[in-house]
Amino acid sequence: MAKKHPNKLSGDVHGEVARRFIKHDQRYTSQRRLIVTVLSASDRPLMIQQMLKRSSDAKKVLAQSSLYRNLVVLEAVGVVQRIFSTDDVARYELNDDILGHHHHLVCSKCGDIRDVRIPDSIESSLDSTLTKIAKHSGFQLDQHRLDLIGRCSRCV
Amino acid sequence: MAKKHPNKLSGDVHGEVARRFIKHDQRYTSQRRLIVTVLSASDRPLMIQQMLKRSSDAKKVLAQSSLYRNLVVLEAVGVVQRIFSTDDVARYELNDDILGHHHHLVCSKCGDIRDVRIPDSIESSLDSTLTKIAKHSGFQLDQHRLDLIGRCSRCV
DNA sequence: GTTCGTGCAAATACTTTGCACGTAT
DNA sequence: ATACGTGCAAAGTATTTGCACGAAC
Fold it and tell me: Which label site among A135, B94, B110, B151 has the fewest CB atoms less than 10 Å from its CB?
């Protein structure tokens, strides 16, 4: 369905993830490994239902409640991040620093999200501007979120 | 509590809103007017509960279900837009083209959002880049969303 | 008088939690 | 042995909807 995401650590995602689990004294269980595998095989953030489907397609058992619970842990450990679209459905993807910094094409009709990258030159001038603005506002900046909102090719 | 938002149409917000209602063959009722008044008096997007409180503070009756329903209409007519924070609570503000284009400081701890503006020069180079990217991806770009994620001054 | 708006209460959708059992250290 | 993970079903929370009544055109 979707081509593999061209990630930063072309290959050893699980190694890096395992390291983060250890650092936080958490266990990298097989279910958590499964979730990471599913996410890293996607070129876009996934909804709960999509993750469940892909897990069962892979003949793995994964209860919805366990998925929710594991996503909380994965987020705390810094492995996945939640993405907000234009609907109320939670979507998750691997952390920016695993996947590589990128942005999203968000379809306001169907809510689907696709990953995109913007040129480093724009990215860095943006960064320095945002840093100044944050400082000026007494805000501690962790990251920025830049999304393109519109219609995906399927929604005209 | 909050200073008035420095909007584009310094003054006649209701006139412009009324025009948009007429264009869409919708009625600009007193409740809808109330919602617009509440939103335009705020310097940040508001949650449902905040809008209800401010309405009742103004001694106005506004049922929660009517608020939700009216927000759907207000959004369809192009008067308000929904803002997505880092939680699941819907927040609304007047449309970008009424308020003037701006961005958000989003607190990942408490979810609160504050409005900020970035320099026109950055904004326009960003715009032209995003336009190219969208075209290249077969995506019909309507708007962009740029948020600064971090901790607000109250959340350290 | 017919169409649209409103309030109330019930329903829905997504997410979280309690509990009993299984797995890892 | 003890602490943590998992599945199931129940509970929560934000939002939506059905219905009867009221207001606007």
Answer: A135
Distances (CA, A) of B83 to A86, B18, B48, B70, B114: 8, 22, 12, 16, 11
Q: Does B80 reside within a domain?
A: yes
What's the pLDDT score for residue B129?
92
* Spans in chain B with pLDDT lower than 50: 1-3
Task: List the domain range (segments joined by +) for residue A113.
Answer: 10-150
Distance A141 CA to C8 C1' (A): 44
| Separation of alpha carbons B91 and B46, rounded Å | 5
Please tell me the predicted confidence (pLDDT) of residue B6: 54
CB of A118 less than 8 A from some CB of B: yes
Answer whether A67's CB lies under 8 Å from A81's CB. Answer: no
- How far apart, in whole angstroms, are the C-alpha atoms of residue A53 and residue B90? 28
Task: Locate the DSSP E strands across chain B.
Answer: 46-47, 80-83, 91-94, 103-107, 113-116, 140-151
How much is the pLDDT for A63? 96
A100 assigned to some structural domain:
yes
Domain tally, chain A? 1
Contact B80/B42 with Cβ under 8 angstroms? no
Distance B74 CA to D25 C1' (A): 20
- Is there a domain that residue A49 lies in? yes
Q: Which of residues 93-132 of A touch strand C (CB under 7 A)?
A: none
Structure tokens at A100: 């590589």
* Per-residue confidence band for A6, with pLDDT thresholds at 50, 70 and 90: low
Say which CATH number the domain at A41 has.
1.10.10.10
